[in-house]
Amino acid sequence: NEAQQSNNDIDPMTDPDPSSNIVCSDDDNDDALTKATLPIGYEVPQLTVRMQHYIDDNNISKFNPHTTLRGELLSILFDDVTTSHQLFYPTNNEYMTMAKCIVKKLCIAPSLVHQSIRDWHESIKQKFKRERKPLQMVNNFVQAKQNKYGKTKGRPKQKSAILQAERKIKDTPMTNLTDKQNENLLSIVNNMNMELLKDKPDNDTLNDLWTQSFNIRRLCI
């Protein structure tokens, strides 16, 4: 689990960058475990021309929470950290380092630096959590981390010692789908799940997939 750090302890621009975080990345060939850390002196990769234009004009409101550019900037950061440095589980201090790099890149006014670092720190953490979720299906390392540290859905339900009358269950005719129908339906469901995991699911895509599954679903009614 990621360490929790009090907001009162945040020094906007002078907190040290740690280099002791060790994580592993999935290798398609041998699933080898490798050490990964955020390098000291890390800098945010080059931004798009559009982003830089707003920064030069001091129009930082374009990067406020829930804006398109904020999401794009978080994606640039995530792709760089996970691709160039193979780091999927940064430490709290490494999240803080990324937040400071972004605030510095945006040329935030000194009076707003402290709060901006806090806001970006939380946004970056949430971005990594969201992006790791679909990787649990294809990345052995991320899946192992989720199995070990992921939160469960609460305590297991306790069985009551009180005996209850057995319910009458009507025999419901079951419809057996062919192997091909099962495969098609499974493929559609998987595509819908992947679309729903995105930050902004495409409703048209979901409606199209739902329509494709209609002929198979109607057989089960």
Query: Radius of gyration, rounded?
Result: 23 Å
Tell me the helix content. 40-55%
Report the principal-axis shape. elongated
Tally of extended strands?
0
Which labels suit this protein?
0% strand; 221 residues; single chain; disordered N terminus; elongated; mainly alpha
Question: Could you give a short description of this structure?
Answer:
This protein has 221 residues and is mainly alpha-helical. It has 2 domains: 7-149, no CATH class; 179-220.
Structural commentary:
With 221 residues, the chain is mainly α. It folds into two domains: 7-149, no CATH class; 179-220. Helix content is 47%, strand content 0%. The chain has helices at residues 49-56, 68-84, 92-105, 113-135, 140-149, 179-196, 203-212, 214-217. The longest helix has 23 residues, at 113-135. The two termini are 44 Å apart. Mean pLDDT is 75; it is low at 1-10 and 14-34. Residues 1-22 are annotated as: Disordered.
Topology, pairings included?
Blueprint: H1 49-56, H2 68-84, H3 92-105, H4 113-135, H5 140-149, H6 179-196, H7 203-212, H8 214-217
Helix pairs in contact: 3-4, 6-7
Region (Disordered): 1-22
